[in-house]
Amino acid sequence: AQSVSQHNHHVILSEAASLELGCNYSYGGTVNLFWYVQYPGQHLQLLLKYFSGDPLVKGIKGFEAEFIKSKFSFNLRKPSVQWSDTAEYFCAVLMDSNYQLIWGAGTKLIIKP
Amino acid sequence: DSGVTQTPKHLITATGQRVTLRCSPRSGDLSVYWYQQSLDQGLQFLIQYYNGEERAKGNILERFSAQQFPDLHSELNLSSLELGDSALYFCASSVEGEVEQFFGPGTRLTVL
Q1: Dist CA A98 CA B24 (whole Å)
Q2: Distance (Å, rounded) from C-alpha A95 to C-alpha B64?
Q3: Engineering a disulfide at B93: which of A40, B29, B58, B74 sits with its beta carbon 3.0 to 4.6 angstroms away?
Q4: Taking CB atoms and an 8 Å cutoff, what residues of chain A touch B31?
Q5: What is the DSSP string of A44-108?
Q6: Which residue in B67, B63, B65 sits closest to B82, CA to CA?
């Protein structure tokens, strides 16, 4: 079955630490990949997306993600996190012509000031 | 502000009751998606409508139904409510041919 896995449900980091959140999907065909962020008490917002081309995509607020097709992964990275990055991060994958986004379970990120 | 509006913001009701949640998509967006977010289940896709027609169905219970009207706004109807239906319900919209979804602020439903 098609699925999206986010390995870490909770991550706690100190400010200025580097961040990498894992996302893997199970599907061998064409995919469109997304990372969404949900700040406390707010709705989901798009951080970045990959459709085609350069597998390293840059998003808002200094985030980037790398699509590694051979590993079925789309990990989210940020070199130096800030307290304001405290939020829940969701990976989502659109597989081929399926209109339904498949969502990961989310990773709650807490940044200690 | 994504341009997607949802009403009401909060809803408190009792078990067995029926409620209607409303969503207005961004101007020009033909697709509307409904999601349920709860602590134990995470973010669950419920259903998608495109220009008035149901396009995709996710983990939507039979007690729940949705529709999209000619003006493209959508309503999610939840009936015979149970305590476990307490959750945040999000609506999202997208443009035809685009897969990026824009989310509304959500409706927080509390079933007592």
Answers
A1: 24
A2: 26
A3: B29
A4: 99
A5: EEEEEEE-SS-SEEE-GGG-EEEEEGGGTEEEEEESS--GGG-EEEEEEEEETT--SEEEP--EE
A6: B63
Please give the pLDDT value at position A99: 65
- Three-state SS at B85: helix
Check CB contact of B106 with chain A, cutoff 8 Å.
yes
Average pLDDT over residues A68-96: 94
How many Cβ contacts (< 8 angstroms) between chains A and B? Answer: 44
C-alpha distances in Å from residue A98, one per residue of A30, A69, B36, B77, B94: 10, 19, 20, 25, 15
List beta partners, residue B103. Answer: B92
